[in-house]
């Protein structure tokens, strides 16, 4: 008996089939060798049997390919002959036999249809004739046959549908079956990988070979699944030729043959690798792949790998078997993984040559595979690499850190917007900010923005995605975020489209998590109304909309009333680091004021019961703090912000004060102040928490422990543990969920005063009391502010203000109102404008055309028409610009009085002279075309050209004054007809203006760097920040970019936005916003005590020191003395100075430019030319003064001479009706008023 079956055959040292592997068999292997004599020429062949002796063996190298290993227990072929053809034949017979049956069936069916087509008409005619000539009973056999056919078709259809459902992924059963088939196919492929280490063909016992049993079970399942697929297939022929069907043909039948023959052939089982092509479909069924890129990537990978593994399997088969026509003698021993390596080297065109095909079949296959494999490698691999490389770098999920809040910032994410936001939000003064910022945007950041994120990597993270996608919202953990901030593109060409995008973002976020706090930027005022339609939008929970157009134009409007106020307010809510300058220049004083910010802090219990002016004076003199407003809680527990409410209001326990200071630690003094401990302290830095405060807090702690159920006492004690809330510091009261915290009544809280509460005796001198004369109806009232019960006001005044037939104000009482006017009635020609007396007015130069985006001029006009002005105090507004553009804006302006339009262009000097621009109080330059230009340097070209054009104009010093005096007018500041007790004469004007440089101008800019072109005599560096430039410091330039700081300020303290909005909008309320959202216009209303009470609110003004009651302090006096005198005497709260730029010089200067000084210290020295920013009370007596100068078109002559009052009693007394028209029009004095 042969031992081992010989050595390796051929030059390779390995045999085909069992060759090369028989050396690894045990010594118990028996083989029968077929001995052939190659040199014999006889036709007969003799066979010799091998000897049974174990000591002898026969070595036939050429016959080694035909020898297979045989174990003693396996009844294999006694001759050792290979049976690979039986396995292959089973597959081929199955494939071609089934194909033949299908084609035969189709042929017979076709012939049957063709042959029976001719007799079909005859049979049909016979059926019809038989049915008509015979009775109903004779038709029964035909009907039964048809019903049987129909029943048969119905049964086959049902089975087919059932099979289709079973193999489809539309049902759970189908998905499970599809996934199971794929998993078993991969399992069968793994078994092939294991068996590939064995000989190509070997004898195996089915009952003892575990892998063969598993493979048999898998293939039985594949056979059943094949049957289901065959039943469900509509086209049997195409199904038979499918790739999956071919795989089954060449893998399933050989398994059954191997069981029958007790031998195994590796054969074509590698075709199971083609099942990998369905991998992407399986992952889609499992909802793992959801994006097109991921599906495409998996498809490419699965096709590439399945082709690679299948080709490697074929090479492994033919190389280890050899060529059949060479009697399998040219084989070589290659493992499967060596074939995989060979195919990869071949596809990549490298071809090291260490492994190569030796058989003819292998080399022929490689020829064709190189063509297809190279093409696939060259196309698939780069695309796969591109898809992998293009995977979102920022596609992860945010991991929340315990004990640390995070906010989500989305919307317009660019380098400029993000850098401005981070510069303010992460300012170094916010040392206690423990908030992480998560940016979410659908576009990956560029290199500059990515570098910015890396510089702030400890507090900033970026994720690529969209807030409109709930999956992306889940990635950034929006449900646990403290707030979501939405940035707007301030420079977009279509503001309405940008607002619509942000509103959709709000809707998506609120739909995902209704409780999330949202702060969004809006460009247009009228689009704010759409936010009210969102059910979960709730400003009481902190939701806020920062309307840039509303605030920008509101700031500019306030500058028309007090030039430079826009700069001061912008600096107050922006984080500015203190820059110390030693030289005595105007920058030194300006920058000292710039370092001031707005803070909030709860007031100490030592202030309880004192009036607001008393507390304000004490804070300024002793604590070195400027308090401008408080959050007052009324009896019904509703809170509202009151700005300089006057001496009628008493400080309550736990009142929140609004302070202007340079440091948060300074504001703490207002909470720590104790009269017993700190009354004699002169150094404010020594005012710290005293023992009284500690004992009080301990007492409160014990109080809470003893009376947990007493919520009122609990709230009272917790109110003592108030904390500093800085605009720029993360200490918003709502974070601490303190029961003592206040919820504002409205986001734009109306400054409605409370009834008189225990007024203190007046501190006015007898002279002041006498000066106020008959208006002093109460010894406890303010000399300039009447806040009495309506019953104490004379009835005539109430009747005067409550004219039931006249609508002077809008329905909320916050703004002056008139009946809608057609635009043609307010249009002035150039000649009419020149003949009209215009002085002390506001000229609005606007660039725009019929295609320009609307900027919302209503937001500019509303603050100038606030009802806390008397009608004669309203400044006339003249628009100079394109009539086509102004017609589009007119719908929102036609209810405001004293508005005129001069069609023209701001670049025309003739138009500017016609509107007496040299006599105006303010010239505003706006443009609606700025965002239509791509070049940022040219965005402000129109505004800059208009500003330079006005400054270069020259005027005759006699024309303006003579023209005004001829009609009984003098420019404001020269008028002395007002009562001598009026402390505010407006901004003083020079006797005459001969050059346009002296005309007060404020220019709106889009690009901050363009501010360098406004003043030709300044030395500002183009890289200088906007707030450090001279035009901004002087209040002659304003850019919307300064409003970016409001996002951070609002997040940290939502009261700040309410305060700013109240100051700059003139008193817009939620009721008014809802009305405008309903009608897009103001609605007139009759005067009632409630609406008239709304007039009683503060307004910003400028106090002149050159003349008037404060002239004695103007020459070398202290600012602190002026502050106390104005507060005690007139309830006016001073908060800044508007000083000439060269006032610090010893030599006189001709320069008329002024700059802003915010909250100067007590010892600050005043100069006579200073103008003081102040918050002045509503003057009830002003309605009596200048009555002859009040050309009210909506009041009667009899009522115009009477004084206005805040409260009125309803009266049924007869009132004179308003005159419908003026009889005389011959005087130039009334030309303008007729056009209102």
From TrEMBL:
Per its UniProt entry, which superkingdom is the organism in?
A: Eukaryota
* Comp. bias intervals (Basic and acidic residues): 1220-1236
The keyword Transferase is annotated on this UniProt entry: no
Question: Which SUPFAM superfamilies does the annotation name?
Answer: NAD(P)-binding Rossmann-fold domains (SSF51735), Voltage-gated potassium channels (SSF81324)
Q: Name one Pfam family in it.
A: Slo-like_RCK
> What InterPro entries is this protein classified in?
Ion_trans_dom, K_chnl_BK_asu, K_chnl_Slo-like, NAD(P)-bd_dom_sf, RCK_N, Slowpoke-like_C
Q: How does it sit in the membrane?
A: Multi-pass membrane protein
| Ranges that cross the membrane | 83-105, 176-194, 214-232, 297-318, 333-352, 364-382
**A GO term for molecular function:** metal ion binding
Q: Which UniProt keywords apply?
A: Calcium, Cell membrane, Ion channel, Ion transport, Lipoprotein, Magnesium, Membrane, Metal-binding, Palmitate, Phosphoprotein, Potassium, Potassium channel, Potassium transport, Transmembrane, Transmembrane helix, Transport, Voltage-gated channel
The answer on whether this UniProt entry bears the keyword Cell membrane reads yes
Belongs to which family?
Belongs to the potassium channel family. Calcium-activated (TC 1.A.1.3) subfamily. KCa1.1/KCNMA1 sub-subfamily.
Q: What is this protein called?
A: Calcium-activated potassium channel subunit alpha-1
Q: Which gene encodes it?
A: KCNMA1
